[in-house]
Design goal:
Layout: H1 18-40, H2 50-56, H3 58-69, H4 92-97, H5 105-117, H6 124-133, H7 136-150, E1 154-156, E2 159-161, H8 170-183, H9 185-191, H10 203-207, H11 212-219, H12 245-251, H13 254-257, H14 262-278, H15 289-293, H16 295-299, H17 301-306, E3 317-319, E4 325-327
Antiparallel strand pairs: 1-2, 3-4
Helix pairs in contact: 2-3, 2-8, 3-7, 3-8, 5-8, 6-8
Length: 329
């Protein structure tokens, strides 16, 4: 009779249908998750959309559109991976990777949607023609003048009203852009592409509101970075993303937050933490922590109680139908 010293062999093996087990487990988990979401689910905060921003902040919307058109917006001058700007370059590695997702903010964010709108609004086409055929100096003159005008602009009767001046085609172009935004058509225009597989590419839609809209909105709810906002609740009375405490903590370190490359530093520090965890089995001292902490003794407490050190191993056996040895259950 064979003697078995391994605790695993003390149990009788039985047939198991793993497909049935997998499906039943999936169904049980799905039911539990759905029930828990109904009972304890956190309500969604109303998202900031192009339509919402255009409706609630029409003057600011036109200002944002003008910055995209004249190359002064955040994405227009962002840099790699979107274009060759320098506004948001943090490290040489960012420049080294080059432009992977090319964006021309003026064309992609403003001209392209207005070109689509021109088929419905005859006033838009002459304005587009005037803008595209004007010299760079003339465009800059119009943009500077209208930027100053919008700083004192008001919204009346569905349009942005500014003092009179030499603005060229900009009032028509930007008022049409505002109407596209308020109607919700701007979102579809930004995602529209002649290439079939790119019609689900939401890049331009997501980047259009980059800058003032997405930077000011969190601050109104104490969700900005200097408030440790990522771990705050977006809906009062519900927990925030507490598991992001460590990354948020790293961003509060003075040499990180005051650096020209805070994201790169935070990612690098996080990677070092990951390396430390990954190589714990080989780091002297740290690899002895499990033995010092003794957590395994707590987990295996019942086993050690029933099998004290020095006790003879269990050797009970039964005979199968063909005479093979099976461990007793």
């Amino acid at each position: 009779m064979a003697t078995h010293n391994d605790v695993v062999t003390h149990y009788r093996m039985v047939p198991e249908d793993f497909v049935k087990h997998l499906v039943s487990t999936l169904v049980i988990v799905a039911v539990v998750v759905l029930a828990a979401s109904l009972l304890f689910g956190v309500p969604e905060k109303t998202p900031l959309t192009i339509k919402t921003y255009a409706t609630q902040h029409p003057v600011a919307f036109e200002q944002m559109a003008l910055r995209a058109l004249d190359g002064q917006g955040q994405i227009a001058n962002y840099g790699p991976p979107y274009n060759h700007g320098t506004g948001s370059i943090q490290t040489p590695l960012q420049s080294l990777q080059g432009v992977l997702h090319p964006i021309n903010a003026a064309t992609d964010f403003i001209i392209h949607p207005l070109t689509m709108a021109a088929s419905l609004n005859p006033r838009v086409r002459p304005a587009l023609t005037s803008w595209t055929h004007a010299s760079a100096a003339q465009r800059a003159h119009w943009a500077l003048a209208y930027t100053k005008a919008l700083s004192t602009g008001t919204y009346k009767n569905g349009v942005v009203v500014t003092p009179g001046g030499s603005y060229g085609p900009l009032p028509v172009m930007l008022s049409t852009t505002l109407q596209l935004g308020k109607s919700g058509l701007m979102s579809g225009a930004l995602m529209r592409s002649g290439v079939v597989y790119e019609r689900f590419n939401t890049q331009n839609y997501l980047l259009f509101l980059q800058g003032a809209p997405l930077q000011k909105d969190p601050a109104t709810q104490t969700l900005a970075g200097n408030h440790w906002g990522i771990i705050h609740p977006a809906i009062a009375g519900y927990p925030g993303a507490w598991w992001m405490t460590i990354p948020t903590w790293i961003y509060q370190w003075p040499f990180v937050v005051n650096s020209k490359a805070p994201d790169a530093l935070a990612l690098a520090i996080g990677f070092l933490f990951w390396l430390a965890l990954a190589f714990i089995p080989w780091i002297p001292g740290l690899n002895r922590l499990p033995r010092y902490l003794g957590v395994h003794k707590l987990i295996w407490k019942n086993f050690y109680h029933n099998h004290p050190p020095g006790a003879p191993p269990h050797t009970g056996e039964t005979k199968g139908e063909k005479g093979e040895s099976l461990d007793a259950s």
